[in-house]
Amino acid sequence: MPDQAEPDQAESVLRAFRESQRAVAKSRPAIGIGYRWNINDWTRANLAQFDVLEITLDHCMNGSEAARAAIFDLVGQIPLTAHGIGLSIGTDVPLDLAYVDEVSAIVDRLHAPAYSEHLAFTRVPGRDLGNLLPVPKTTEVAESIIAKVRGVQSRISVPFLLENITYIFDWPDSELSDAEFLSLICRETGAGILLDVENLYLNARNHGFDPYAFLDGLPANAVKEVHVAGGVTLQEDFLPRPLLQDTHSHPVPEAALDLLDYALARQAPAAIVLERDHRLDAVDEILDDLGRLRARLDRRFGEAHVRPALGPAG
Amino acid sequence: MSDRLLDRQVRLVEHLTSGAGIFGAERGTSADRTGLGIHGGLLHLEARFSHEKRMAKIEWALTTTLDLLGSSRALIVRDFVEACPPASISRLENARQFHDFLLARWRREAPEPPHLPDVASYELAYATVRAGETGVGHETAALEARPGALRRRPSVVLLRCAFDIRPILEGRASDVGPDRRETFLAVAMLPGADEPLVSDLTSDLFELLEMLDQFADPAVFEDAPELDKLISELAARGLLEVHR
Predict the structure, then answer these.
(1) pLDDT tens-digit map of B123-176
(2) CB distance from B232 to chain A under 8 Å?
(3) In chain B, which residue's Cα lies nearest the Cα of A170?
(4) Domain annotation covers residue A314
(5) Taking phi first (over 0 means left), then psi (-120 to 50 degrees means alpha), and beta for anything else, what does residue B88 get?
(6) ipTM topping 0.90
(7) Does the residue A267 lie in any domain?
(8) Which of A261, A268, B105, B146 is 20 to 30 A from B60 (CA-CA)?
(9) B11 touches chain A (CB under 8 A)
(10) Rounded Cα distance, A257 and A263, in Å
């Protein structure tokens, strides 16, 4: 069978594609970093380098008094977006409403345009691993999470986004692909996606799936924010194969930026955030990563030297 | 479904936080010891990562304490893992758990080196003050106080040490170790400061500061010139709060 479409049909497809590209091109994403107290002074001295800072809400709850004050002092100076690590939405227990309400209050105080969390679980009653674990990717588990996403949405004033995590192991009863599971929950709830392209890159390499198929599987324009980061490769005698680890410690790999490029053809995220938690003294690497990101965006959106609008700074 | 998933999640997290999971019962084998159908080597890696993350939190607060544990550190950490599963993601909570575990251990066996309890308590106090987690419960008392009344600043943590650990805190540790001499320290976050201030006090100053838990009318010190002098000194060090 011929692959090519009829000329009229091809032209209309091409036109539709160009229109969608123009629509996407209107919204150049803001670029920034995840705010870290350890490099507070450097971050403030280099505020002009960022369009946005991502605040980890749990640092507002558990950080030192000085760190909390420094975070809230940023309100009004630069747009802030809100990210959480303590919700554990995948634990098979009811939502921690007190936690969600605390999150809600901080999100409002930061004037954040969205609140993102991981599609994962980190704790069970009595034990908090403090590390993100996957949930079995089944429709049953998705239904339970959908109910909880709705619960979160009913208590916060901004859009809720779910992030794809990186995982070392998967549950044997997982029956949906990563993209199917995430898309199902987001489609049913209207939640947006925080696409972590580094997590996608690592998972694809570690678990042997096609990351581009993952991106194709996400609903168009569902990705509202993006994370990028760099990790390391682990080789251990007890592992079946070398494993890429998401350490947030090294430059972003080009392969992850290629995935970002591909994602931007169908998605229009408002912000792209570089995550860095280790080797924070290598600030040149952070600036270099941001430069590489901007260069990629320049190629896609044209050289716009104005700050993208992510809403007012506070 | 609901109970079954939670049961599996509990079994997984219990394994990942257990000594067997972290320290390698599954090393070198793909055997599934959890019954969850997950590769043993991958579970060991997950357990190790989580444990390393937790220990980094503890080390953030108790750096010198962990250093001073020396060759017994590995064994103590293993015992800690079995006795105290992680209950919070907070750095301070994990440090507090480790500190309390050490104190319980030192009630059963002598600490080595002997000044370790002082260093551990000092480091935890410093981290607590830095995190701004002191002074709970002072608000009610403040409502009833008269203007001009004095009390210990709520951020202050008082430490009565059996050893003079100041050389260690100041990075001047020697091979012989600190002198066995009762030392009175106050750790406080003063207004506008980024880091806590550590004051070395005389026993008189320390005991008075200890008593000033609630607001006291300064008139009671007027007839006692010695006390008045001590109050002035504590105020000059920024350790007192005046009710306005």
Answers:
(1) 999 999 988 876 544 554 555 677 888 999 988 999 999 999 988 887 776 667
(2) no
(3) B38
(4) no
(5) beta
(6) no
(7) yes
(8) B105
(9) no
(10) 10
